[in-house]
Amino acid sequence: MNIKKQIPNICTLGNLYCGFLSIGYAANGQFKNAAVLVLIGMMLDSMDGRLARMLHAESPLGKELDSLADIVTFGVAPCFLVYYTIFFNSGLLGFAVSGLFPLFGAYRLARFNIASEKDTASYFTGVPITAAGGILALLTLFNDKVPSIATTVIYVVLCVLMVSTIKIPSLKKIPLPKYGTIVTLFFASLFALVHFESPGKFPYLLYVAAPFYIIYLAYWFIKIKEK
Questions:
Q1: Is 217 in contact with 176 (CB distance < 8 Å)?
Q2: Is the pLDDT of residue 183 over 70?
Q3: Taking Cα atoms as reference points, which of 125, 130, 120, 134 lies closest to residue 82?
Q4: Are residues 138 and 182 in contact, defined by beta-carbon separation less than 8 angstroms?
Q5: Distance in angstroms (rounded) separating the CA atoms of residues 86 and 52
Q6: Measured between alpha carbons, how far is 60 from 96 in angstroms, rounded to an integer?
Q7: Which residues pair with 169 in a beta bridge?
């Protein structure tokens, strides 16, 4: 086995494991850490594709593995979060509605997998499940400041947008320094906001993940500058 070729798949499996851990944290009432694990999964999801292209390790196996990881981390895990924080008191109806998100997400992933490379390189059809799951994670991370009705409406809208035919610009062709700057600023702002809002209660997991992700972005930035 070529270990170098497996590095992207290791990132993908890390993404999947974040989804599993997020579900476990949500079941134990640690909702902030559960939400942060979804965001860490987003970091890993943004890395595996670029690493595969850099290492010339793209494969059908990696693509399928990525989809399986995405449905858990950005489909099942966020729906658990929303159920335990918003829909828990709505009985059977809340339980049923919370299960819609991974169903719509799975359909969206299946449609993406059969689309041509030419189409997916320039735009996405429908909101990607990664973005939708990340939005739900952020909403539950700040659920004490976001009205429950707003989260419910956004939840339903995201379900519809995932299976819609709306064209969403793809970031695949955006040079990493620009993309990396946007992502870094986003997570830095999130990091500072939560930290100052709730010192001592800040999800400790992001203290571990954020430095590694920033190192990864810095490496790419230097590598591109050298070319």
A1: yes
A2: no
A3: 134
A4: no
A5: 38
A6: 34
A7: 123
pLDDT single digits (tens) 197-213: 554 454 555 555 566 66
State if pTM tops 0.70.
Answer: yes
Domains of the chain: residue spans and CATH = 3-172 (1.20.120.1760)
What's the pLDDT at 191? 59
Q: Kindly indicate the confidence band of residue 133, based on its pLDDT and cuts at 50, 70 and 90.
A: very high
- Cα–Cα dist 226/220, whole Å: 10
Residue 56 region, left (φ>0) first, then alpha (ψ -120 to 50), else beta?
left
Distance CA 188, CA 180 (A): 12
What whole-number distance in Å separates Cα of residue 71 and Cα of residue 88?
22
